[in-house]
Specification:
Layout lengths: L1 E9 L2 E6 L10 E5 L1 H5 L9 E6 L4 E7 L5 E2 L4 E2 L3 E7 L7 H13 L3 E7 L6 H8 L2 H6 L2 E4 L8 H8 L3 E5 L6 H8 L25 E4 L5 E4 L13 H4 L4 H7 L16 H8 L4 H17 L5
Parallel strand pairs: 3-5, 8-9, 8-11, 9-10, 11-13
Antiparallel strand pairs: 1-2, 1-4, 2-3, 4-5, 6-7, 12-13
Length: 300
């Protein structure tokens, strides 16, 4: 059997290229999936390393899915090194609750996280940072890059961060993910879209998840944007550990476990009152705690 990596999935076809192939836009093997995988409800993801048997010059059947090093549920991608969470400073304005949902999903997958704030040319950067309290993410420990494709700001730093890694660009529609990739690698010609004036949301331009090989080194996944993310398969006892600043403070709480809500002598609540922990992040934590608890049919 040959061995390769799934670079695209479309209409029940799995497009595979042999590993270490220099170019993945050519030489793709169009594969079917063995019926036993469907019966066992095993999902094949972009990024999966597989073994396949050729049935023709450019067709084959996937016989085996190799063990995954990592997995992200939304977008569904396997064997990632890092997640690039892309949000625009304006046009559309950031939805901070959605932003923290993306961070939580990346933390849950135990992936390296890089935050990219795009369209920096459209605002006064320092005023915007102060107004939106975005300095909290750097203080927590996340790497943050500010970019503009129009003025070529931060593109070199972002490009260097992709080298030697398998990365996924994740974020809402309209924030400029495809435009960033087109600037990093001219010639990709990924379709970009404009913001809908009526609903102030980006229009979906990427229709499916696809793996792209960069000339500068590394592989990157271009994925559809999401306007809403649900936190599936997440227990309320796990949630606090996915907020790094809350997880660190939790060791000093009086109770174990402590949900940092009604408990007395809670160190997290003290740090929120002192301004050390962002009140916005804490409010998002409580909102998501309630959401998870409600789905489980219980009480906080």
């Amino acid at each position: 059997m040959d061995q390769g990596i799934v670079v695209k999935i479309h209409s029940n076809y799995y497009y595979v290229v042999r590993e270490n192939q220099a170019i993945i836009t050519v030489g793709q093997i169009e594969c079917f999936l063995r019926g036993r995988f469907k019966k066992q409800r095993i999902q094949v993801m972009v990024g999966d390393r597989v073994r396949f048997t050729l049935t023709g010059e450019n067709t084959g059947v996937i016989e085996e899915i190799l063990p995954r090093e990592s997995q992200l549920r939304r977008p569904p991608v396997a064997n990632l090194s890092q997640v690039i969470i892309v949000f625009s400073l304006v046009n559309p304005d950031p939805n901070w609750l959605l932003f923290d949902r993306f961070l939580i999903l990346a933390e849950q997958a135990k992936l390296e996280i890089l935050i990219c704030f795009n369209k920096v040319d459209l605002v006064e950067k320092e005023e915007w940072i102060a107004e939106n309290q975005v300095d909290i993410y750097g203080k927590i420990g996340y790497k943050v890059i500010y970019c503009s494709t129009k003025k070529n700001i931060g593109i070199g730093e972002l490009k260097n961060s992709l080298q030697g890694k398998i990365s996924v660009f994740a974020g809402p529609s309209g924030v400029g993910k495809s435009a960033l990739l087109n600037t990093i690698q001219p010639g990709l010609q990924l379709k970009t879209g404009e913001l809908s004036e009526k609903i102030q949301r980006g229009k979906h331009t990427t229709r499916h998840v696809e793996l792209i090989k960069l000339q500068s080194g590394g592989l990157v996944v271009d994925a559809p944007g999401f306007s809403h993310l649900t936190l599936e398969n997440l227990e309320k006892e796990e949630l606090a550990s996915l907020f790094p600043e809350i997880d660190e403070a939790a060791y000093s709480c009086r109770y174990s476990p402590c949900f940092h809500w009604k408990e007395n002598d809670c160190q997290v609540k003290k740090l929120v009152e002192a301004g050390t922990i962002s009140s916005r992040r804490y409010e998002h934590y409580l909102r998501l705690l309630g959401e998870i608890t409600e789905k489980r049919g219980g009480k906080r």
